[in-house]
Amino acid sequence: MKLGYLGPKGTFSEQAALMYAEKCTDGCEFKMFFNITDVIAAVNEGMIDRGIVPLENSIEGTVTSTVDTLIFDTELFIQNDLILKISQNLMARPGTKIEDIKKVVSHPQGLAQCRKYIRNIGVKETSDVSSTAEAAHIVSESREPIAAIAPKRSAEVYGLEIIGEDIQDDDTNATRFVIISKEMTELKAGIKTSIAFTLDDDNSPGRLYKVLDILNIYEINMIKIESRPAKHKLGTYVFYIDLVAENDEDLKDAVKMIKRKVAFFKFLGSYSTIE
């Protein structure tokens, strides 16, 4: 099975791909891409069998390029999701000491997530780059006293030494990844189901409430809701929802009722979480 992920080597996306591959029974051949939409497009065009892409982060929120592309541009389905704890680490060329560091480089989110640590070690100069893995690559080729903030995997890939471990300011930081493919999943209770819909243009009050009340009637738990611009008219939105039902028939009946009340509906998959 060909599995696509967001590169380069040493990223959190690669970590998630390796985590998924450990649970994969039919083997994985990895294919690296350099932006999320290319991963999704490769699955949609049949270049690869599955892709793994970030969907949301506990601090930064939804990865909008993932959600928008799945809703508007493809007919793909979520097969599984997994949660990756984000552990940021300070790394430098072997033999470098923390007190020698004059500059820290990383992805903007990596720098933001370690703001207190950077201040505490007395480093005043920072520089952002396209990814944490790219930061590690830059440090590996530099002769200057600089360090990167990146995953542990980056230290392995680029021959660096970790001189500060788990340095993120918030230990609850985690990213949720989804595995996508062309294979349609069955609407099923007991696991997560993701749907998207737009409301009618009649501007009547309580339109969203009337749709969400269907979930209440069938005692279906809504665990996430997010609105995204519908991209055709200002002030119109697509609602993305994750839900969990206890009963297959209740879930199917609720979805039927929702379809009758909305202008656009898309089923994105029922799927289990990989532990």
Explain briefly what this protein structure is.
This protein has helices at 12-23, 36-44, 64-72, 108-113, 115-120, 132-141, 152-158, 207-217, 248-261, and strands at 2-6, 29-33, 50-57, 61-62, 77-85, 89-92, 103-106, 125-128, 146-150, 161-164, 174-181, 192-199, 221-229, 237-244, 262-274. The protein is of the alpha/beta class and 275 residues long.
Describe, in plain words, how this protein is organized in 3D.
There is one protein chain. This protein is an alpha/beta fold. It folds into three domains: 91 residues, D-Maltodextrin-Binding Protein, domain 2 (3-Layer(aba) Sandwich), CATH 3.40.190; 76 residues, Periplasmic binding protein-like II (D-Maltodextrin-Binding Protein, domain 2, 3-Layer(aba) Sandwich); 83 residues, Alpha-Beta Plaits, CATH 3.30.70.260. The chain is 31% helix and 35% strand. It contains nine helices and 15 strands. A hairpin with a 7-residue loop joins strand 13 and strand 14.
- The rounded distance between the terminal residues' Cα atoms is 20 Å
What is Rg?
Answer: 21 Å
**Dominant shape:** elongated
Question: How much of the polypeptide forms β-strand, as a percent range?
Answer: 25-35%
Helix content: 25-40%
The major pleated sheet works out as: 10 strands, mixed
Features:
275 residues, alpha/beta, D-Maltodextrin-Binding Protein, domain 2, Alpha-Beta Plaits, 3 domains, 10-stranded mixed sheet, 5-stranded mixed sheet
